Prior knowledge:
Layout: H1 6-20, H2 24-44, H3 48-57
Amino acid sequence: MFGLGIQELLIVLVIALLFFGGKKLPEIASGMGKAVREFKRATIEPEATDIQAKQLTKPPETEVPNARDKPS
């Protein structure tokens, strides 16, 4: 896909391990996984605010009172 083989991925992983440390690396990977999931979900589902905005732009349906409806 990106032209990276096993050797290149191992080198990148070792450098990241040295740079961030063993304790921080799982937290970074977890955060990246959550970000990717959120991005995929956001591209598939419309936001609730978009739906509400469309509903707010509709003019409200009001009834026009007739002369018969007025109490005498």
